[in-house]
Request: fold
Amino acid sequence: MRQHAVRILAIAGAATLALSACGRDSGGGGGDGDGGEVEASPGITDEEITFGITTPLSGPTAGPGTCTVAGVTAYMERRNEEGGIEFGDGQTRTVQIRSYDDAYDPSRAVSNFRQMINDGVFGDILSLGTPTNLAVMPLANEQEVPQVFLTTGASQFSEDPEANPYTMGLVPTYKGEGEAFGALLAEAGEPITVAVLAQNDDFGEDYVEGLEAGIDGSDVEIVARATYEPADTSIDAQVTDLADSDADVFFNANSQHNLAVQSLLQAQQLGWTPRVFLPSNTSSVSDVLEPGSADAFPGVYTTQSAKDPNDPEFADDEEVVQFQEDMEQYASNITTTFVPHCAWSYAAGAALEDAFTRMEQPTRESFMEAVRSIEDLDAPMLLDGVTINTTEPGVPPISDVEVTEFNGEKYEITDGY
Amino acid sequence: MTTTQTSPAPARARLSEWWQRRWVRIAAVVLVALIALGAPLNLTQYAVYQVTMMAAFAVAVLGLNIIMGYGGQVSLGQAAFLGLGAYVSAYGVTHGWNIVLVFVAACLVPAVVGWLIALAAARLRGLAIAMVTITLPIVGIPLARRFDEVTGGSGGLTVSFMQAPEWTGLATDQWRYYVVLAVTVAFFLLARNFLRGRMGRALAIVRDNESVALAMGVSPYRYKVLAFTVSALYGGCAGFLYLVGVQYVSPETLSFATSINILAAMVIGGSASILGSLLGGVYYVLVPFVAGQVNPSRAAMYSGIILLVILFVLPGGLTSLPRALRRLRRRRDDGPGTRSTAAAGPADDGGTQAEASSQTERQQR
Reply:
């Protein structure tokens, strides 16, 4: 028996020695660059900078998710082909983009973010989704890793740069969209009644809050309200209630394509044909307006900030031609269908390039400083008059939206209510 | 534990004889323990996080195994208990409760909810518990979204707790790993004692034949309720561990897909097996990661392929791997004439596991 004890002890001792032989690597990872006297952050060398994107590449949101990867990849691959981008510290670097699938699941987004840090990524860019990015935000700021140009319309990401210095949104907030439409109604200067249907979550609430801010102090009045749950399969009852009000405008803060179609059809069936507002996410001509036979309504409005390459008006537009070419050449293995997220992602590529030219040290801190000083950048694929501006605190880089109206074939900028 | 080794292969006989020695077993346990204790000191932060999550999900899988593998009742709601445990923990942490109280509440609240559900559901027979538990995520997600003062709505709750105390000299991720490891080991030992003891045997009888159980004075109803409650308690504990690792909870945690993934992990690890639960936890974390490394856009597809391959090759789960190898080797060693002795096989754990897994298969059908 004693002999056994000795053997156990021997094995245990050997194992302990083996395990403690190598202490934990102090981390750090990359950074062999010698940009002056400061130590380079992980993910950047004198030749290369690497970014990660955690986004839904599978599941129901995979369409927009893959687009967020495709746009910026196309932009950066074009630059890499041309030899790279000259940074503020004088080095010319190429830009690598890595993507991680989170399937819109916050715990997987957190896991992906940790993996990115482990993989020696410089920062998290363009990641799509509100709950996913919210889950990552505290971690990013704790670890001081940039989490910028997030593809989400929730206001929390750009709202408070002091509390979250390493986080920034990209696209117009849902609130901003609602407010733009509210302002359009208020400008009409006549009494207008509005019926509001909102998804019962932050998405819907943000739109309604924006609308209320936009119509504040005008003759426009909200006369009926209804909400539904994102998981609902039918909203006929809510639409029927709203139709009862016979309002002039149907404000439809809805993020689900099938429900948006259903609401349009139900309103027609009840003989209620108001002017309709749809969020930019849910206003696709082919997916929503055509199946919902939107021609029946006197006007269908949405907001837009990016050019639609399928719009014949932009067929000869230089930026659109270049975009199509880059997408075809560098991103056709990622996605071939267009949603606005592709254009936003592409425009963000230009914003990154702009920031790089002012980034004087190869550090995350210097990068954030540069990213927060983009002034009225006329980025490709954004509508004329829409610019990227990060100097104004509390609003996302793309804050201007144009209210557009459906003309039977496509959306065009509206000339008022 | 009697072994009736009838194999003629001398090398293998020597190996299994060697394994029978007490000191070899103890040494193996000590070795595994040392690796588990030493791992975080040598791994990267991300790897430590992954191992932490494996332990957390292993507890969830073990909970499911108690009701499904050992109890023979199909449950599709484990993610709901995990999510509930995580929400209770997050609520406690944000309100500054003592951490021990948070942990106890995270285990007990889901256990009580599970008990109430089981009181009603266990009266029904067949797949009724499956049908009842399928509704848990369906009800849970809208509730989590609606009570946003408590749950943070669809934005979820972010917490920051379990920082490494100064005196340990550990990084926060290492400290969290040790906490999760300690809880996981404790819960695995408790489950082992529970399942090997009087209650575990009674549960096995209920699973195999309710009439026999009744005849022996074992109430199937009470044992089903008991198993379900314990299973929910383990789910809640896993929720606490999940929160320690991820530091965030949102309605998606409760989703039906998470339940199905936990169930798949259980079947792959090995139904009605404690070791299988551990392997299930490893599978749950590792496979999506590996699939993502291969190709992020096709990760779901690769996960599916791996799942199918394992189920085809090892229908009894990963724990049946040694048995499958043994059978394969025996077939090669022996002539076709000795088939019958091979079929009788060694009557160790492997045998009961085989029965158990075929039992679950029957249940699922």
Observations:
- Residues 25-35 of chain A have pLDDT under 50 and may be disordered.
- Chain A touches chain B through 51 residues (CB under 8 Å).
